[in-house]
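Priority: medium. Attachment 1 of 2:
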């Protein structure tokens, strides 16, 4: 497939308008409802399993760090709307949270102009 053809496909996809939301009730068949319920169950199981994994930092983790100046801070990584660093919640999109994701106990991360060590993951 030529690169020009691929470029045309990419351009066409970018030009599509947003799909409007129907004003009509969103009806679903019994089979469709069973599929939705199965997906909800699967996602709930994945969600329940994720917080129990404390080997690495992930969304929802509570992480304690010790900064190079000796200060200990504890943050829970949450959604952007829940974030309030003064209350110990940190947006998953923040630079610190992004630096922490995937790290393990004892790892160090760059925080502002210094480093911090991960001393607890809960």
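Attachment 2 of 2:
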């Amino acid at each position: 497939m030529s690169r020009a053809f691929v470029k045309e496909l990419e351009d066409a996809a970018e030009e599509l308008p947003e799909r409007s939301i129907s004003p009509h009730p969103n009806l679903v068949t019994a089979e469709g409802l069973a599929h939705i319920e199965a997906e909800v169950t699967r996602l709930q199981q994945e969600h329940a399993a994720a917080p129990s994994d404390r080997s690495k930092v992930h969304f929802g983790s509570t992480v304690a760090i010790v900064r190079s100046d000796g200060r200990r801070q504890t943050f829970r990584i949450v959604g952007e709307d829940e974030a309030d660093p003064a209350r110990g919640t940190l947006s998953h999109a923040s630079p610190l949270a992004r630096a922490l994701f995937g790290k393990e106990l004892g790892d160090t991360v760059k925080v502002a102009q210094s480093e911090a060590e991960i001393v607890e993951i809960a």
